[in-house]
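Example 9 (inverse folding). The structure is encoded as follows.
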């Protein structure tokens, strides 16, 4: 299956570890995406609510608002409910199917993760979600 290019879509990268934000952000930018970096879930939620966001990559464990809380908040807001999210976790953290069903989390990846796998997930989730970018723009 051919996966189209990013065409300037915006991805929010939320992680309290600057090196993770830097590496993930740089790889996404080199692949043609616009990137908004956030140090915690609160910053990420603010960015998503401003609109124009196509997907979110978030760490599970962050101060102020963790990744799961971020994804639950996004799912509760009709403006952001359909924006797909990728949750990054430390090994050993498992979320139940029931919990995942309450969120917009489409994939959980353990750290350390492969950047190629992460980019493939982003491309695939954007194709599958189709309207997430338009919904994000409508929220603006």
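The amino acid assigned to each position is listed next.
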């Amino acid at each position: 299956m051919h996966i189209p290019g990013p065409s300037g879509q915006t991805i929010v990268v939320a992680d309290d570890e600057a090196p993770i934000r830097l590496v993930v952000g740089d790889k996404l930018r080199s692949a043609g995406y616009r990137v908004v970096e956030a140090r915690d879930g609160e910053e990420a939620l603010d960015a998503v609510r401003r609109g124009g966001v196509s997907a979110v990559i978030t760490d599970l464990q962050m101060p102020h608002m963790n990744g799961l809380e971020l994804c639950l908040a996004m799912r509760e807001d009709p403006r952001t409910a359909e924006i797909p999210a990728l949750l990054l976790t430390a090994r050993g953290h498992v979320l139940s199917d029931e919990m995942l069903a309450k969120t917009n989390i489409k994939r959980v990846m353990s750290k350390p993760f492969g950047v190629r796998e992460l980019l493939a997930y982003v491309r695939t989730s954007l194709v599958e979600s189709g309207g997430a970018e338009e919904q994000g723009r409508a929220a603006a």
